Queue: 2 jobs
Job 1
Amino acid sequence: MVRGMQPTRPPLVMGIVNVTPDSFSDGGRFLGREAALAHGRRLVAEGADILDVGGESTRPGSEPVSEAEELARVVPVIEALAAETDRPISIDTAKPAVARAAVAAGARIWNDVTALRGAPDSLEVAAELGCEVVLMHMQGEPRTMQAEPRYDDVVREVADFLAARAEATMAAGVGREKIWLDPGVGFGKHMTRHNLPLMGRLSEIVALGFPVLLGASRKSFISALDPAARGSDERLGGSLAAAIAGAASGVAAVRVHDVRETVQALKVWDAIAQAGAA
């Protein structure tokens, strides 16, 4: 079992390894095998507890890639990283065949932005693999999810969706102890009207009783609050604030681009919190 299955102080840090040409923050920088491996090694050295490897961008407006292309991108990287580190590796994919190949290559977590709805056999394959799974909320699909997202109560609707998907996943044969939830900040949600209430009421997602993974790193809602931060690489301060807010709400892990800085921020937050409770 991955250590992050129960909330920890501070939360675990999941480092992002995008083996893609078009991810919103670092698309193309780590597309080749050697570049991706070097990046993964650096994230481990900086303190990452988990590595999340993805071969298909899910940024707003992104186009899907073929199964063959996604496999070619991620499998060699996962094989090499799994041979070098004992850090758990997560495969970020909506395709069951990619998840199956990734687990065979050494991945231990299936991180699915569709909450195992991406294919008719997703639930069946998750049960077959026996790995941990991350179920994320997304309204719509990446190409169109930011066109006009609508909610009456975003937190309640996200919580209800995740609870239902967790039940479906357990009914398919996945153990409760292997399920994570991700509220999907930035996925089919208005930059501030939906993301901020979701961040502010994360404790309601945590209260569902599953470990929660928060992915708010470098997301565009930060630029909506600070228009001077136009580029994704100018959102470090906001990313750290989001990670600390998640930690204070009880999330089990944060998914980030800036591992060293996040590890440091969470260590300081935790030390202050513990000193205050003494």
Note: The domain at 3-277 is CATH 3.20.20.20 (TIM Barrel).
Job 2
Amino acid sequence: MPPKLKILSTTDKDFDSQFKLLLERELQDEQQVASVVREIVRSVRSGGDASLLRYTNELDRRQESSVADLEVFDFEEALLGLDKSLKQSLMTAADRIKSYHEKQKMSSWEFKDDMGNSLGQRVIPIERAGVYVPGGKASYPSSVLMNVIPAKVAGVSEIIMVVPSPDGFVEDVVLAAAAIAGVDKVFTIGGAQAVAALAFGTETIPRVDKIVGPGNIFVAKAKAMLFGEVGIDMIAGPSEILVICDGLTNPDWIAMDLFSQAEHDERSQAILVSTSVDFLGEVQASIQRLLPTMSRKDVIAASLAKNGAFISVDNMDEAIELVNRIAPEHLVMSVENPRNYLSNIQHAGSIFLGRHTPEVFGDYCAGPNHVLPTSGTARFCSPLSVYDFQKRSSVLECSIDGASQLADLSFQLATSEGLDAHALSAKYRASKK
């Protein structure tokens, strides 16, 4: 039976406590997960290919004899054999994603100060990126495009893609997306062992400079554990959607928007905030009617029952306040004149304005990236972008006169810190010889 979502109201005396509980989603035992991941990471670091192969065969039910057997060489062929219509859709989406991300490219710059010194910033791409593409419960060609294309736009020299392959099976559409996006190598490995292999390198898997892409809790924990050994994009949690509606959108549309994220995982979260209590009832009726028609109805039902909610607010100011408290991964503003509220939204991963802008467009083909901060991290984190694949070096070249002037400043500051070598290194340049 379809779940009846809990309804909270900002007028309830215990609203704050109930709201806090809503955001504290139950996760797997963190200590147990951390212990398992720590052992996998340690084993792959010391054992290389042998450990990686052992974990892959055991956890993905494979029977391969070497890690070399886990590399896919014919992903270009998957593209050639793909349904023509699907191929065109992937290519169109890739073009749109590329066009959007090309506007994010940063350039190097330089200027001269009034002392005659040259100061600047050099922007260069990282050399090698590892892209983790989820697999198992579903196939995600869209994740291939979203993770790889920004890296290509940034100018990354080599992109290594890893994707879990339970029982040795990978959807052709995922491999086709890899070909379209420009992946250099594909390995059918997943889990914490794949993250460790990319971070340290093995006899077969190249070591990368940064790992991007979402995965399950074991993948997320491995990325967190290995940050510093390798760069990462973010720690991605379960999917989230927050819909703000004034009660004038078709309730079936809103119900399906909530389903679109709930169907990812039982731990996903879908919340609807509205200024109309009657509208919340209409959406509940749509959920009751539409859910039985969904192929992933059991997952959706579990997600909505555990983590979903309706919230009644008195006005849009209260709605925006809740947005900034939640800092959602996806924010859908299904209201009249949504741009009127945009400047007041401080925390959200991706914002969808208007009744005709569902979150699903962002998942696939609109252009902005769908790899987004979750679990409130939009307070300080941003969507995956070209910036994640470019690094910056500061550049300084002093003139003789400029060095002399900076020497006096540096000498005084270094002396105040008690660092004699610093002070003398500066003082030597004061003589202009």
Note: The two ends are 85 Å apart (CA to CA).
